[in-house]
Known about the structure:
With 193 residues, the protein is mainly α. The chain contains seven helices and no strands. The longest helix is centred in the middle third of the chain and has 53 residues, at 89-141. The relative contact order is 0.07.
Amino acid sequence: VQEAKKVGIENPEMVIQQFQGRTPTSSADIAQFETAVNVSAGNLEIKTLKEINNIVANAETSNMSPAELAQELDGIVLGSVNALKKIDTVSGQNLNFALSKVANREFLSYSNKHAKLEQEKLALQAIENAETRIQLLEQGANTLVNVNLFDENLKSELAAFKNDLMANKVSPSKIATLTLNAKDRIHTARIRA
């Protein structure tokens, strides 16, 4: 039995092909086949984990969408699992559990990073839009408008200004700084008018 296991370790592909289409019957054959399947499953798992890492690295450099990454990860996992299930169903299922756990963890990590980057882009865009809005309010401050009407308008404009920034998850300290800056610039423009 030990010698049979040794053969299963040294040349798993040959052993698996040898038993293709027939069930091992002797204890030595069973030990040889099971050992070959276990070694093949381990090799396949290592190969697939490397592929998963490569796919995730490629996704990060190419800014792949999470949906595309999920599709690629599913394809890699299913391909490896189905290949092993043809040889041994139980080993295939065990490989599915192991690889799915890793693929799901990588997907969630990537999705979270991707969402954070997209949110940061939205926040930067909101800050850029805030500058444009301040400039428009400065221009509007130059018109001859009743002081009370101007103050009322400014109050509602600044509230909308803050709401837009908050909706795009700009940091509270940045919102406060931008709002104070906007008030100062608009009042200065009003005084100059």
